[in-house]
Design a protein that fits this description.
- This protein is of the alpha+beta class.
- The chain has a single domain, classed as RelE-like (YaeB-like fold, 2-Layer Sandwich), CATH 3.30.2310.
- Helices cover 33% and strands 30% of the residues.
- A 5-stranded mixed sheet has the order 1-5-4-3-2.
- A hairpin with a 2-residue loop joins strand 3 and strand 4.
């Protein structure tokens, strides 16, 4: 059974900020990036360990996947995946 995907309010704010920043130049590309970010999280319900362990943490339950140059940081729980943050790949959390 696939785990439920939950977005923290911080991660939703991150996605909104990314969309607003990109939309200043290209609303179409902003929609494409947001769609890729959200679509990337869907596979985690079935494959929660698909991402690599986040180097800043010594916790195998905290992982990351990438969509374009954005890091999608998530935590694996027994019954759900929690999307904690979405940041540019150059940024440290």
């Amino acid at each position: 059974m696939a785990l439920r995907i939950v977005f923290l309010s911080r991660s939703l704010s991150d996605i909104e900020s990314i969309a607003e920043y990109i939309a200043a130049d290209s609303p179409t590309y902003a929609r494409t990036v947001v769609k890729r970010i959200v679509d990337s999280t869907r596979k985690l319900g079935s494959f929660p360990r698909a991402g690599k362990v986040v180097p800043e943490f010594a916790d195998t339950a905290v992982r990351e996947i990438f969509a374009y140059s954005y890091r999608i940081i998530y935590r694996i729980y027994e019954d759900r995946i929690v999307i904690a943050a979405v940041v540019h790949g150059k940024w440290q959390i």
